[in-house]
């Protein structure tokens, strides 16, 4: 024979411990009192406004100049190999100046994850001419890492062929984008007095 079900009493509330009870700490009591206080609607609301970078003169980035530091994305290296382009030489042909390709830990991790098939890309990424930038954040999602780095320090050019990443970087003022078109490197949003003519 099964257990008999207890009939639930109607409108019975759970008993709550009183805030004045000795078992509750002073700190917890203070937290509860702070929750009860309502915000004053007439009070002046403080909000944080992002500071405008001092390096920008309208859309013109004054921090950009040779030698150029170029943040390289994973797919940029892969597409350069496909197009049979030497990264450093082609960058210099595009900008007519010394270029330092920079590679973050996230991009390096992404290339390593791609496995044996992309070993040539890994070999290029480990070139001593490439500057290695350490990452302090968690995870290895390169797109977020590059966007965050470029937002903080506007001294980089971003080299990518990823449409989504390009779209995100176009929203950040003063950051040029390097991409591959017609088997050569091209640059977007770069002041006209720098680099090669755009086609």
Automatic annotation (TrEMBL):
It holds the Pfam family Fcf1. SMART domains: PINc. The keyword Nucleus applies. Keywords: Nucleus, Ribosome biogenesis, rRNA processing. The keyword Nucleus applies. Residues 68-167 form the PIN domain. GO terms for cellular component: small-subunit processome. It is found in: Nucleus, Nucleolus. Residues 25-47 are annotated as: Disordered. Its main location: nucleus. GO terms for biological process: ribosomal small subunit biogenesis; rRNA processing. Part of the small subunit (SSU) processome, composed of more than 70 proteins and the RNA chaperone small nucleolar RNA (snoRNA) U3. Belongs to the UTP23/FCF1 family. FCF1 subfamily. This is rRNA-processing protein FCF1 homolog.
């Amino acid at each position: 024979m099964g257990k008999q079900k207890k009939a639930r009493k109607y409108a019975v509330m759970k008993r709550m411990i009183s805030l004045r009870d000795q078992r509750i700490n002073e700190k917890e009591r203070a937290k509860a009192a702070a929750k009860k206080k309502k915000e004053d609607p007439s009070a002046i609301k403080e909000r944080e406004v992002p500071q405008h970078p001092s390096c920008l003169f309208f859309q013109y980035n004054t921090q950009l100049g040779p030698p150029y530091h170029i943040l390289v994305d994973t797919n940029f290296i892969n597409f350069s190999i496909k197009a049979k382009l030497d990264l450093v030489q082609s960058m210099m042909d595009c900008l007519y100046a010394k270029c330092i390709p920079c590679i973050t830990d996230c991009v390096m991790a992404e290339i390593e994850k791609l496995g044996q098939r992309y070993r040539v890309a890994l070999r290029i990424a480990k070139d001593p001419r490439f500057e290695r930038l350490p990452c302090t954040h968690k995870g290895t999602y390169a797109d977020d890492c590059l966007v965050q780095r470029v937002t903080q320090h506007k001294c980089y050019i971003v080299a990518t062929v990823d449409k989504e990443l390009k779209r995100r970087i176009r929203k950040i003022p003063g950051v040029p984008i390097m991409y591959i078109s017609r088997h050569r490197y091209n640059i977007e949003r770069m002041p006209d007095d720098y680099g090669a003519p755009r086609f």
